[in-house]
Amino acid sequence: MGFIIERLPRNYKEKALILLGEVFTDEQNIPVELHYINEDLKPIWWYAKIDSEIVGIVASWIEKEEWHWGRFAVNKRMRGLGIGKKLAIFSLNEVFNLGAEKIFIEARDVTVGILEKFGGKVVGEPINFYKDSVTPIVLKKDDFINSLSTNSNGLETNC
User: Fold this and answer.
1) Count of CA atoms in the C-beta half-sphere (13 A) of 153
2) DSSP category for residue 9
3) Going by fewer Cβ within 10 Å, which terminus of the chain is more open, N or C?
4) Nearest Cα to 115, choosing from 90, 146, 137?
């Protein structure tokens, strides 16, 4: 099964937010109004697709002069196939290439596991967030780059 990861075209955003709703609202009980990122923060969105179906989404933005990464979701049917990992690698790599030295993330447990493999460090206690908790993490550019070279995670976008 091949999939492609790239920046989300503006005309796909509403379609991508449907996937976000399926994961965030239906599975995690997160209100719809928290799916959106204020356009003043100039969010950058990426997506994974198989043919024309959006199967993954993530975003990054700058808030108070710090890069943030989140709204990470993968279609329930497609989990465990490496799509989320590749989407994370691709998007994080682009954020670092845009000049970030570190990225701040609040993540669910499954995402914490992915980010720790990329050199992410837990920087606080988990915080109760709707149906579950989120854990604050910082991912530094050098740690991320080192994890890619030592773990052979790869940066292919056509999988």
Assistant:
1) 26
2) P
3) N
4) 137
